[in-house]
Amino acid sequence: MNSNVYQNPLETRYASSEMLYNFSPDKKFGSWRKLWIALAEIQKELGLDISQEQIDALKDNAENIDYEKAATYEKKFRHDVMAHVHTFGDLAPAAKAIIHLGATSAFVGDNTDLIQLRDGMQIVKQKLLNVMASLAKFAREYKDLPCLGFTHYQPAQLTTVGKRATLWLQSVLLDFEELEFRLSTLRFRGVKGTTGTAASFKELFNGDYAKVKALDQKLSERFAFSNVFGVTGQTYDRKIDAEIMALLSNIAQSAHKFSNDIRLLQNLKEIEEPFEKNQIGSSAMAYKRNPMRCERIAALAKFVLTVARGSDLVASTQWFERTLDDSANKRLTIPQAFLAVDSILGIWMNVLDGLVVYKKMIAKHIEEELPFMATEYMIMEGVKNGGDRQDLHEIIRKHSMEAAKQVKLNGEKNDLVERIVADENFPIDKEKMLTLLDPKNFIGFAPEQTEEFLANEIQPILDQYQDLLGMDFKLKV
After folding, report:
1. Mind listing the pLDDT tens digit for each residue in 432-461?
2. N or C: more exposed end of the chain, with fewer CB within 10 A?
3. For residues 264 and 270, what is the distance between their CA atoms, to the nearest angstrom?
4. What is the CA radius of gyration of the chain?
5. What is the DSSP secondary structure assignment for residue 10, as one 8-state letter?
6. Is the pLDDT of residue 281 over 60?
7. pLDDT (tens digit, 9 = 90+) per residue, 45-68?
8. Which residue is catalytic, options 51, 79, 226, 282?
9. Cα separations in angstroms, 15 against 141, 192, 340, 344
10. Is pTM, for the whole model, over 0.90?
11. DSSP 194-246
């Protein structure tokens, strides 16, 4: 490591090797050369005067990329594509005249961008599926475990730990559906010429539009794109970038929401993220078990939410057939957003693999709040035994205020039930009352909703992509 030069933390601390490769120079410039070779082969197939010797020369040198020479050429030409055309041509002089024939810079630049976007989404897809599988497993395991629900972060009606997990999973499902849509509709730029009119290829093929269209289609199919833009300017529509960055932002939003909930639950000592044997929570407070993984998810998610805005600005401010004020922004924002989401999903998998549920703490919190939530049941039971609803409501109101006072001011146990049972003006059977206070009487249809959601909406997806499941993720630091 060169210690006096900035190192991108996404590379050194967070992202996976596969996502780092997807946006690496080898992937980028290797794709450029594959595009040039495919262009020449299909042009030859369609009748242009290109020899097999020339194509073989390109193929023989496809992986031999001299980055130092390319950098020297770029400094001279101030043009990255022409720098690599000359670098490639120096290795294959016999083919130098037909490299990039009829094409513009966006031929290699934009098509490669689309390849990287597609392949990056495929990496994200696998990790998103594994997050879904882990969330589904967790939801299924704890579908019957009652816990306090919260609205406004105040205790509310009970839910279950598993049902709450389905809310996280629902967000991920929406992200997955959007990801599938983006993959299925992604279009290749193909071969469109300098301003999208294919004028140079009209010249090359003597006005034969059918051959120009065939070149466009064949090249797109060569790179496994079933869809190709019917029209472009010099570049593909920059809304593609904005849409995919919005997808990445949506995934980051879902992850951040999950990380918020886990951190709040960890403070309540109900659920805790993994904590390793030698991990240090605080340099000063040795007892602390800080939720560093979820905090890292939140930090990276904020970064994605921020940089995603750049593609919106690029898409909205392009001029006519193209301007170059997109280039630097694309180089920075798109790879880094993918790297960050890749990191987020890996950490998310890691958290889910070791979540700890403290059932007794969950039960303790229910016990503290359930008497207040059971008051409607108490009134109904009292009415059944001959009481007047309004009178019973007033009795409960007074006892509730006093019980709350004892809890908040004196730290006492919530004794509301005992107060009501002991009140001779409240007609209720003590044993029946204790039976009513079983937390499972207050969770509604949470277990059934969880089972149905998993069976109907999640499991079919996991079954369809069974071969992509089973990943794990180890933190670099």
Report:
1. 777 778 899 899 999 999 999 999 999 999
2. N
3. 9
4. 31
5. I
6. no
7. 999 999 999 999 999 999 999 999
8. 282
9. 30, 35, 7, 9
10. yes
11. SSSS-HHHHHHTTT-HHHHHHHHHHHHHHTT-S-B-S--SSS--THHHHHHHH
- Residues sharing a CB contact under 8 Å with residue 374, sequence separation 6 or more, in sequence order: 417, 436, 437, 442
Q: What's the Cα-to-Cα distance from 125 to each of 162, 182, 432, 462, 475, rounded to whole Å?
A: 24, 11, 52, 12, 20
- Residues contacting residue 404 through CB under 8 Å, at least 6 positions apart: 372
| 399 is known as an active-site residue | no
Please provide the DSSP assignment of 306-365 as one string.
HHHHHHHHHHHH--TT--STTHHHHHHHHHHHHHHHHHHHHHHHHHHHT-EE-HHHHHHH
Buried/exposed code over 326-359 (b: 16+ C-beta within 10 A; e: otherwise): beebbeebbbbbbbbbbbbbbbbbbbbeebebee
Q: What is the spatial distance between Cα 82 and Cα 4, in angstroms, rounded to a whole number?
A: 31
* Cα 82 to Cα 463: distance, rounded to the nearest angstrom: 47
The bridge status of strand 146-151 relative to strand 154-160 is antiparallel
- Quote the CA–CA distance of 209 and 410 in Å, as a whole number: 87
* Rounded Cα gap, residues 393 and 124, in angstroms: 55
Cα 376 to Cα 159, 370, 373, 436, distances in angstroms = 17, 11, 7, 11
Burial of residue 256 (CB within 10 Å: 0-12, 13-18, 19+) is buried
pLDDT at 280 (0 to 100):
46
Tell me the one-letter amino acid at 74.
E
Beta carbons of 134 and 353 less than 8 angstroms apart:
yes
Specify whether 152 is catalytic. yes
Measure CA of the first residue to CA of the last residue in the chain; give whole Å: 16
Cα 270 to Cα 14, 56, 150, 366, distances in angstroms: 28, 65, 13, 11
The pair phi, psi for residue 105, each rounded to 5°, is -55, -35
Helices 67-77 and 80-91: crossing angle, nearest 10°?
Answer: 130
Among residues 3, 152, 184, 283, the one annotated as catalytic is 152
Residues in the chain: 477
Query: CA-based angle 86:90:92, to the nearest 5?
Result: 115
204-236 pLDDT, tens digit each: 999 999 999 999 999 999 999 999 999 999 999
| Neighbour tally for 421: CB within 10 Å | 17
